[in-house]
Amino acid sequence: MSEGSSAAGGGRLSNVPPAALHVPKPCLDIFVSYASQDTTVANAIVETLELNGIRCWIAPRDVTPGSHYADGIMLAISGAKALVLILSASALASKHVGKEVERVSSKGRPIIVLRTDAAPLTPAFEYFLSESQWIDVRIGGVVAITAKLVEAIRLHVDFAAAGEPSVEVSLPVTHRTATAPRARSLVAVSAVVLSFALAYFFVDRLWIAKHFATRKPVAAIQRSNGRVMLAVLPFQNLSNDPEQDYLSDGLTEETIADLGELNPQRLGVIARTSAMAYKHTAKTVATIGHELNADYLLEGSIRREGQSVRVTAQLIRVSDQSPLWTHNYDREFTGLLAMHKELGGAIAQQVRVNLAPNYANQPAAKYVPNAEAYELYLQGLFYLNMRTADSIRKSIEYFKRSADKDTGFALAYAGQASAYISYTVFSPQESYPKAAAAALRALELDDGLAEAHAALGAEKALFEFDWAAAETQLNRAIELNPNSAYAHFIFSLYYLTPRAQSQQSILEMKKVLKLDPLSPIYNTVLGLTYYFARQYDQALEQYGKTLKLYPDFFVAHAQLAWLYAQLGDFPNAITQITKTRLLEGGSAQKVAADELAFRKAFKNRGAEGFWQAVRGAIQPGTFDVEVFFAPQIFARLGDTDIALDTLQRSYEQRVFFANFIKVDPAYDSLRSDPRFANLVQRMGLAP
Q1: How far apart are CA 57 and CA 31, in angstroms?
Q2: Cβ of 551: how many Cβ atoms within 10 Å?
Q3: How far apart are CA 43 and CA 34, in angstroms?
Q4: Strands (DSSP E) along 34-110, which ranges?
Q5: What pairs with residue 310 in β-bridges?
Q6: Residue 36: how many CA atoms within 13 Å on its side-chain side?
């Protein structure tokens, strides 16, 4: 790090990276070197890497209390496999950073450079970095370079020799979603927030990937009445090859999905997002069971050698931490799907909730694709769950290749549908029709795929405004898998909320949180659902709960800013805007200057001054950003004609936020205008 993190460094540290993992100092993967002025970027990098399973050492977090500061740094450098350098003008001027780079270079370890500005190299740095390939953080920020950074580290670091990570995560990390290049304004941040909502996993299935803070244990989540709750913990990859993580992660996800369909009235299965928060965790069975309020845990491992796979699974009762059942499965790679069914049946019998008879009456086996198609499908899932723009593009390619290898493999088409729906990598005009086509093909092959029905229902709502068809598809998805948090989420946010069915929407979101209690985005969206229902006190309380769990989750701060603005509490709204932009990686100097301008505008001209300042933050030429939020801002300012013009453009472009015109309080001043009523009518949202 460096000097900036010490008390003597003088810089104000944004809190130590929340996901404070304990790593054994003699055997770690990455040493992070940075100047104090770059603390925000460094923390974001550490959060991202640690939730991709890469162990980091960063000062002052990992300096043992009472030890000599410099000794701790030297010991960590000696044990690190590579150095990640946050390169900026401040780093170039730092003697401490220079010494760290020199030390690592002398040991022949790779240096991975993340450049944050265009400051010219000093002769010393030019000497050490002349052969380094740089990654430019300026293009899209930390989120956008995540996949490239992880790939670079995995290329240079011998993970097989690094040993098993010793990690202790109090609470799962938050997930962020990578979007298009980030405009550093409240408007840009909020645009990102809702493009997230296009996805559910929009942040969730990895931010970007999965991250945040050491916290006190989560309070137990209230158990659904009359149901046994089961959590499937992430299968461990024992193949000594991190490139095989897609296999262990895919097996985890497929097992969760299969078990969720067994007997949903009697068996509840915790969703993937919350389960994956415990990957590499050192927490006890009792702690995990308490945090998830689960009665049973399924844990296991997978080892692949060529086309042979060994899976070990163990079912544990949380109440006394006793193993009820353990079994090894040795299969050829092509038999994994069939093995899921066998595994589910065994668990059902052991949990003793009368599921075995139900299960026995189901079809004997799922469609078994050829081995290459299934492997490509699992790789597609792996990249889809990263939820960055680049990774989603990769996931689509893998799913397409999987379908090409086996045209009868329905899950490959369902994966494409989920990828196209989950995040607008392409324009809505391109994404949604492709999602519908893929979902329809999946359902032609297998009408029992809940995820395909959910994706098709989302397209019917978001793109076609065919609310009857959307309701049919989403109800079918929930009927097929009541344990699907994703299906309940889509039903709530994409169907019920736009139609002003507020109380039912809130109930659906509460179901979502019972199934996926640790999802930062789901917790945030419940607050948004309260907001659209005009239940502002409940929204404020829910955002507070979310931020207590995930203080650095910028999406929740962005939504809280809008809530405070709606309540007329502009000073607090400005505070939340600032927090959002800093957490999203904005320049501290620029953010501070803008905050001062916001406060001055509000002091001089009240609410109008605040909204004028927000309008001024929209960067010229950023059409997507303007279409997202300009209608709301102009409506707040009383510019009815401009507000309606931009809202019309939002409708034509199928901008996600346009779906909420019936419930968004920002549009209250427009509701008596016939043009607004006509637009509501065209969207099929009139009473």
Answers
A1: 5
A2: 17
A3: 10
A4: 56-57, 80-87
A5: 303, 330
A6: 14
Quick one: average pLDDT of 374-393?
82
Residue of 536 and 164 predicted with greater confidence: 536
Show the 3-state SS of 313-361: EEEEECCCCEEEEEEEEEEEHHHHHHHHHHHHHHHHHHHCCCCHHHHHC
Burial (0-12, 13-18, 19+ Cβ within 10 Å), 464: middle
The mean per-residue pLDDT over the stretch 663-669 comes to 95
Residue 311: beta bridge partners?
302, 329
Q: What is the largest CA-CA distance in the chain?
A: 74
User: Is residue 199 within 8 Å of residue 387, measured between CB atoms?
Assistant: yes
Helix (H) or strand (E) run with residue 309 in it: strand 308-317
pTM: 0.62
Cβ neighbours of residue 426 closer than 8 Å, sequence gap 6 or more: 420, 434
Distance CA 509, CA 545 (A): 15
Q: Would you state the structure tokens that stand for residue 240, as one six-digit string? A: 């000594």
Q: How much is the CA Rg of the chain, to the nearest whole Å?
A: 25
* HSE (side-chain half, CA atoms, 13 Å) at 78: 8
CB 417 within 8 A of CB 462: no
- Residue appearing with tokens 């996901």: 19
* pLDDT above 90 as % of the chain: 29
- For residues 332 and 307, the answer to whether their CB atoms sit within 8 Å is yes
Lowest mean pLDDT among 30-34, 282-286, 565-569, 642-646: 282-286
First and final CA of the chain: distance in angstroms?
Answer: 59
Per residue, what are the HEC states of 517-586? CCCHHHHHHHHHHHHHCCCHHHHHHHHHHHHHHCCCCHHHHHHHHHHHHHCCCHHHHHHHHHHHHHHCCC
Alpha-carbon distance of 207 to 399, in angstroms, equals 21
> Other C-beta atoms within 10 Å of 355: how many?
22
Best CA proximity match to 650, nearest among 201, 203, 191? 191
Nearest to 497 by CA among 662, 671, 665, 658: 662
**pLDDT tens for each residue of 322-368:** 887 788 878 776 666 666 566 666 665 666 544 444 544 444 446 77
**Alpha carbon separation from 436 to 112, 132, 421, 452, 625 (Å, rounded):** 41, 44, 9, 9, 26
- Alpha-carbon distance of 337 to 603, in angstroms, equals 63
Q: Which pair of tokens denotes residue 505?
A: 């929407």
Query: pLDDT tens, 54-97?
Result: 888 998 888 776 666 777 788 888 888 889 999 988 888 888 89
Secondary structure (H, E, C), 400-453: HHHHHHCCCCHHHHHHHHHHHHHCCCCCHHHHHHHHHHHHHHHHHHCCCCHHHH
Rounded Cα distance between 165 and 667, Å, is 51
Strands 296-305 and 236-237: parallel
Residue keyed to tokens 């997002």? 273
Residue 60 three-state SS: coil
d(CA 573, CA 561): 4
The amino acid present at 370, given as its one-letter code, is: N
Task: Say what the pLDDT of residue 52 is.
Answer: 75
**Are 416 and 383 within 8 A, CB to CB?**
no
